């Protein structure tokens, strides 16, 4: 394991709703190494974006962090003052949002938007900030002369690259990417991810990469964490997780998408519906959809455990509970 940059420990995030308190993220713990790309997978509503926003402390009411630690280079950023967090955010940890296409301000030129981020966090003059912005555009293969343009004057793929350039503006050590390319066609999607990967190799930042596209995730990550109903239920090297899944939910995910090579098996999918977080059962949260349950699955809560070197799962079949 590489030296950890980020260590998330027992992170809990709740939403206060009219129907009650919903724990959307429950005791999530993971490490992200320096220069590592970690994927976060799982079906819609399992809590991926809630984790991402909480790490940036950009979650808004009705969400609140109800427990845990987010250690960045050993310091718990949940304890930072709001001012300290403002300095930290974007310069140390930045984010490409799920709705990145809408993340740019439509009434400001890109020059204004870049300069705003750069000058707020550094002592650069306007001229220096503009030069830095021009360099950032070159990094994402957009001609620097386009800096004077408004977001609507760019194509969708270019806007996506602009958002990535803004995330890179202050040389952060960690970039969180929540579905950074979902709205784009597959060719552009791959080009952008290859670009990000090349930048990562050059600048050495770490990435937390969230996408619904498992084949892309396997290709562009070192390890993958799988979430189910607010919990992290498996973490494994990307090369192994789909060929030898441990958790029955991961097995279901692996059986839901076709292999890129070889004969095409019948896709199996995962029966049943996602768990209603207002009705969490005793024991394992996946019990109602699992074909392999044993007695303890209905009694004992699960806990992510290292069951082999570099292989973590919360499933009782592997943890021995
Ligand atoms: N403002 C809110 N109020 C109440 N519950 C919320 C709110 N936002 C999200 N949730 C709940 O939190 C849970 C996690 O949502 P989140 O957006 O983190 O999921 P996700 O894994 O990112 O899903 P997707 O893949 O669709 O983006 C869901 O059950 C969702 O219903
Ligand atoms: Mg999301």
From TrEMBL:
Nucleus in keyword set: no
Domain of life of the organism encoding this protein: Bacteria
UniProt-listed PROSITE patterns: ABC_TRANSPORTER_1 (PS00211), ABC_TRANSPORTER_2 (PS50893)
An annotated GO BP: transmembrane transport
Database matches in InterPro entries: AAA+_ATPase (IPR003593), ABC_transporter-like_ATP-bd (IPR003439), ABC_transporter-like_CS (IPR017871), Oligopep_ABC_C (IPR013563), P-loop_NTPase (IPR027417)
Domain ABC transporter: 8-254
GO MF term list: ATP binding; ATP hydrolysis activity
Official protein name in the record: Sugar ABC transporter ATP-binding protein
Chain coiled-coil ranges: none
UniProt keyword annotations, A-Z: ATP-binding, Nucleotide-binding, Transport
A Pfam family this chain is assigned to: ABC_tran
